């Protein structure tokens, strides 16, 4: 027997676009900024939690195990167990899934699960040649050996590499994430104009959601050490149009590539938390759940086509729960790249693909664009890698409540050739 598990509440920071220098917040700073108001509005003591789980990919040296550092800074007590998970883009969803499984199995009652990322704080790293030169210099014993080793320095040793650039390149295929999107664009015949149109719509939808106040309960203002306030996602371009999106050159496969800075997700800082609880905890503390977590699914595939991860995990998730396309009221599909999202939609409508790859007798079906990423996505608000999976689950629950939807799926592609999906149901 398994127990019902509920998503009770959640909050995130504004997503802050990286501006070419370290932003005002470290990963733990971000987690604390949205964690404090989230915990403050609960009718129970923060020591009630059994566990804290936090997704984070680019952990900085001063914040090893950011889950534990965040838990302590949030005043959750010295006895609070906390651990960090790293599954690339799936880290924030993995934190929820782990909480879901623990509570479902009866070993825990209430868990704080989140994701955080400060991509603007990605470290600068030395080239391997420079590291080897420094090793030789330190190993030299005599003055003559040290002088000889020092003479081996070359000017390019002093030019560091942004760690993020290496982190976004798959070590198996040696393709960066943008190139994997180009592979999909070629496979499913996604043209530049269609990708740009999708990106424009993402910006317009986010701008509309902001103007309507639909994000007010979800996005908590963040305040830096100088007192400056950050109260909205800064990457959104409300005036985005096709003429402007046509200007950037292909970022990864010039001159004919389809992926540009305008139709790809933005490098961003941000954090998100959700509270996951058992039915017993909900009743004991008089809580009102946002949604029930019904099920989840993870899938793996060739890293060169990692963008199809949502197709490979969401399809069996839906089928296992007796759902077709028409039965899912709302979808959150993380917008790593416009071409990647559009390729997933095309794959679901491709009968040959669905038969050969998914083992279906016919095409899975067409997802109505009015039920997909209704308030924009990572193209307009950014993709802080360890956070995004958490944000899409949180926003799916909020948007389902607003629209009166019954069932929704949050799903994402994951660097390295993975996909994750989670099914929510209205309570």
User: What is the average of the pLDDT values?
Assistant: 95
How many beta strands in the DSSP annotation?
14
Largest sheet: 10 strands, mixed
**Termini separation:** 20 Å
- Shape-level CATH architecture of one domain: 3-Layer(aba) Sandwich
- Global geometry: globular
Helices and strands, in order, run as EEHEHEHEEHHEHHHEEHEHEHEHHHHEE
Would you spell out the secondary-structure blueprint of this structure?
Blueprint: E1 5-12, E2 16-17, H1 27-40, E3 51-55, H2 66-73, E4 82-85, H3 91-104, E5 110-118, E6 124-125, H4 128-139, H5 143-150, E7 161-162, H6 163-167, H7 177-187, H8 192-212, E8 222-223, E9 229-230, H9 242-245, E10 268-278, H10 279-284, E11 291-300, H11 309-320, E12 330-333, H12 338-349, H13 351-356, H14 378-381, H15 385-403, E13 407-414, E14 418-425
Parallel strand pairs: 3-4, 3-5, 12-13
Antiparallel strand pairs: 1-10, 1-11, 2-10, 5-10, 6-7, 8-9, 11-14, 13-14
